[in-house]
Design brief:
Elements: H1 8-11, H2 20-24, H3 33-39, H4 44-48, H5 52-72, E1 76-83, E2 103-104, E3 109-110, H6 114-130, E4 145-149, E5 152-156, H7 158-163, E6 164-166, E7 174-176, E8 179-181, E9 193-197, H8 202-207, E10 220-224, E11 230-237, H9 239-245, E12 252-253, E13 256-257, H10 258-274, E14 287-289, H11 292-306, H12 310-323, H13 327-331, H14 334-341, H15 346-363, H16 372-381
Antiparallel strand pairs: 1-11, 1-14, 2-3, 4-5, 6-7, 8-11, 9-10, 12-13
């Protein structure tokens, strides 16, 4: 039987304002003995919810990274991508639900560690260098660079030079790569999501029994970042050392340093074929690199979000709690529209409608309402639902 991990006076409080990482970890309801014995399952809606303060923090952390990368100038490569499939990471972390999740502390928000990004992009560069995917994009495994380390000279390829070389135990050929990969903090539109995997044939894999179809598989739930979330990748290069060791990688190619062109090709290959995070073999973590036009459109939407109406945020939260559902369901429903229609303040009503319509357009609902309730709501917003 689990024992409460927090004092009772904390566990009994409303933890709606806590970060999702805290609600999934220390404040998880199953830590409370009576809750676990009653439900045997946590309240996933309360765990997945991202408060407005969480959304603001995600945007502010990304803005800070963008500002720091801007200081680095041509020493930094910044790429944006949008998830085309659910993203998850940290499933191997210890957790009472058997599937953990990677949260960035002390913020308690989801993230993709820079070390994971480096591993995937390095693998992508190696696959390109082998030539099995057609165009190598000038990646090569040929060790044509010489680096002196003490009394020995180490032979390095472009891959080793940029990503680093780590030899086996007892050997002395090590080299720290010239690239630094930053942690990636996704910009999530809405809340986190829950996926389910149901492993079959447990009796065969774990107990050695003959495989058959009369087993009783147990569904396993785990957290994911929903598709449509935006990921910004930042990589910084030590161009001073690169200029000494391989100045040809600093030469311009298509108006940019050669190392940036090659690295972007490796990222593109990773987006198309490898994926990021966990469970990539079954399609998780797939992403689409955003073009400059798509990035500009996203920035316009971001500026629109910065002008959000506090009344809309507060009403969404209140109705979601009262109806025990997600804020997205409330946003596209008739109940929010009825509350908006009842407003007496003309200025507030105009600002709220502008905010609601912007959120609808971001999701493609305004022209194509998803369901009867959404169509009724739009009629109210347009003044034809009186």
């Amino acid at each position: 039987m689990p024992i409460a991990a927090v004092p009772k006076y904390i566990a009994d409080q409303n933890l709606a304002d806590a970060s999702p990482g805290m609600r999934f970890g220390m404040y998880l309801p199953i830590w409370r003995r009576e809750e676990w014995s009653r439900t045997r399952d946590p309240d996933w809606r309360s765990i997945c919810r991202l408060n407005p303060s969480d959304q603001d923090l995600l945007r502010n952390l990304n803005s800070r990274q963008n500002a720091l990368a801007g200081i680095s100038g041509e020493s930094a490569l910044c790429l944006s991508a949008r998830a085309t499939a659910p993203f998850t990471t940290g499933l191997g972390n210890e957790h009472p639900l058997e599937n953990g999740f990677a949260f960035l502390w002390p913020y308690g928000l989801p993230y993709l560690p820079g070390s994971g990004v480096k591993g995937v992009v390095r693998r992508a560069a190696r696959e390109l260098a082998k030539g099995e995917w057609g165009d190598t994009h000038r990646w090569s495994c040929d060790k044509h660079h010489s680096v002196k380390s003490g009394r020995t000279v180490i032979r390095l390829s472009d891959l080793d030079l940029l990503f680093g070389l780590e030899s086996g135990d007892g050997e002395k050929e090590h080299f720290r790569g010239l690239l630094t990969f930053w942690d990636v903090i996704p910009e999530i539109s809405g809340d986190l999501a829950v996926d389910v995997m149901t492993p079959h044939q447990k009796h065969y894999y774990q107990n050695g029994e003959p495989p058959h179809d009369s087993g009783q598989p147990v569904p396993i739930t785990f957290l994911t970042v929903p598709p449509g979330s935006r990921f910004r990748f930042h990589v910084v290069c030590d161009t001073v050392r690169l200029g000494r060791l391989a100045p040809e990688l600093l030469a311009e190619e298509d108006g940019r340093p050669c190392w940036q062109v090659r690295l972007e090709a490796a990222f593109q290959h990773a987006f198309d074929w490898l994926g990021f995070g966990a469970k990539t073999a079954v399609g998780y973590g797939a992403m689409h690199m955003l073009s400059p036009e798509e990035i500009e459109a996203g920035e316009r939407a971001e500026r629109a979000r910065s002008l959000r109406c506090e009344w809309v945020d507060g009403t969404l939260q209140r109705l979601a709690r009262e109806n025990h559902t997600g804020e997205e369901q409330i946003l596209r429903g008739k109940q929010l529209a009825e509350c908006w229609r009842a407003l007496d303040d003309a200025s507030l009503k105009e600002n709220a409608l502008c905010d609601i319509r912007t959120r609808w357009e971001e999701k493609g609902w305004w022209r194509h309402p998803p369901g009867k309730a959404a169509r009724k709501a739009r009629e109210i917003y347009e003044g034809s639902g009186e």
